[in-house]
């Protein structure tokens, strides 16, 4: 009979991870057929050795004043407004599914980032934000003088 080490807090660790996951996801309001919530853009976040990159699907932006990017206490917030000019008169509209209005999404970043040097580009409905990581403070050894 093999001996299995007893880990009394194993189940608590699983519960903590599930609670963290629950409170870092947005509560959906209205879902589209593709799994995206109206007013909350989808965001992918990955990191490299020197930066954290966020890729956001936000189709319909017309000018850079329509989107705001804020980084505060390691939380990235992307917000703005999608304004579409009325392409078709309302009485001729049979179906309207494209999102119009305000959007906002806040996510916790996996690493600390510097607010200086952040670069954002918007192309083909995708906003890409490159945030340089904060360099860890280098430890300096202090010599103690003995008298």
Automatic annotation (TrEMBL):
All residue ranges annotated as the SHSP domain in the record: 34-147
A Pfam family assignment: HSP20
Entry-linked InterPro entries: A-crystallin/Hsp20_dom, CS_dom, HSP20-like_chaperone, Small_HSP
UniProt-listed CDD domains: ACD_sHsps-like
Domain CS: residue ranges: 38-147
Family as reported in the entry's similarity comment: Belongs to the small heat shock protein (HSP20) family.
Protein name, entry field: Heat-shock protein Hsp20
Species name: Effusibacillus dendaii
């Amino acid at each position: 009979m093999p001996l299995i080490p007893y880990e009394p807090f194993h189940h608590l660790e699983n519960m903590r991870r599930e609670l963290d996951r629950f409170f870092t996801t947005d509560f959906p309001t209205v879902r589209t057929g593709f799994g995206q919530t109206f007013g909350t853009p989808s965001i992918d976040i990955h990191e490299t050795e020197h930066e954290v990159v966020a890729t956001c699907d936000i189709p319909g932006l017309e000018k850079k004043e329509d989107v705001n990017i804020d980084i505060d206490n390691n939380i990235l917030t992307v917000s703005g407004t999608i304004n579409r000019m009325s392409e078709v008169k309302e009485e001729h509209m049979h179906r309207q599914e494209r999102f119009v209005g305000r959007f906002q999404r806040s996510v916790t970043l996996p690493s600390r980032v510097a607010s200086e040097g952040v670069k954002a580009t918007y192309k083909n409905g995708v906003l890409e934000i490159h945030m340089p990581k904060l360099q860890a403070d280098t430890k300096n050894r202090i010599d103690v003088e003995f008298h």
